[in-house]
Amino acid sequence: MTAPPPQSAPPTSANTLRQAYFCVLDNYYSGPVMDPKTLLQSAFAAYTQDLMRRGADRADLRLPALSGNRDTDWAAVARVLGGGDSAALRAAITGMVAGLHDNHARWVQPDPSQGEPTGTGIAGVSAEYGPQLDPAARPPLFITRVLPGSPAAQAGIRPGDIVVKANGVPAFIGDTVNQSLVQAITAPGTLRLTLKRPTTGRTRTVELTEGPVTRQPPAVTSKKLADGVTYVRLPGFSEGAADQVIAKLRDEPEAVVLDLRGNGGGSPREVTRLLGAFAHGKVTSYFCPLKGDCVPNRTDDSVPLLGSRLIVLTDRGCASACEDFSAAVKDNDLGTLVGTRTAGAVSGPGEAYLLDDGSVLLLPRVRHLGPAREIIDTIGVPVDHHAPMTALDLATGHDPGVAKALELL
Q: How high is the pLDDT of residue 8?
């Protein structure tokens, strides 16, 4: 007997926007003291802009007078919207959440796509780390990651290749990276790249067409660097990640080089557990509500201590839980940070709220502070030794972070 096909999610409606609006006011960190007029203005602006982009603007569509009362203001907006336009309502929710200016507040929609994922296979470029462009980015713009077997890999594109132009547009205007170009390089679709190989100076133009790509789930890997030094790469603080790292260190090496570059974060519990392998009895961070006392997070002291020296490699791709870990290492003198400043994207852990169209609203209820009660969000954790990766480093297989770590050890 064949199983029935899965039911598609209902369309986004005015009621979905209503749910999102009240969910923010009830559950977001500063929701209880937020001016509802600001939320509705952000949503309404995004709604009308979406209609204009599609040539569907309405002559009668105006934001009504708002009083600041959450219930009466919503009722006034709902009367203007009527049944609403589903696409514009999705834009409205996106705009409302973006108006919070919070890197951990997101609206995630159901993915209706079926079948094999596609793309060009260019999975990373040098000027885009974490949720924002790297403010330290300078020319040149270069490719940092290519998926094996992808159209980009088959075209001979390698990490370290310098992007001179994309679709005829220069990568930099002066010393300022072209943000739309960066997004176009990693987005699906057809792409025309002018590339320069740093090892030879050769320039060529490549036409890429979107095709099947395979994204392998990130895995913890390790290798021996020298006598008594073990290198471990941790791509994310997913469930069980801490124990995977600890298992790689069963022989209790004299020193550990823990590579967190590109680590986008994960579970705070994995952070405290992994830190427990390097110290006990330490405060690792604080979670602070809008009102009331901050709650300290502490090392998991059930984890046996390794007794190893620790060097942590970070970059602008180290975000969220990765920054939580890095700040704990730095503030508690557990090790040395090498690389570049972290992303500055650690506002607070998000909680999920299901809306009636099957989408999910992710909202932080608390704010993150470092062990010294410092704000890391928007600022990042500074390194002790600056060792950025260059295009030539990638092209030749040289790793300045690892080289500096071995020098320090």
A: 66
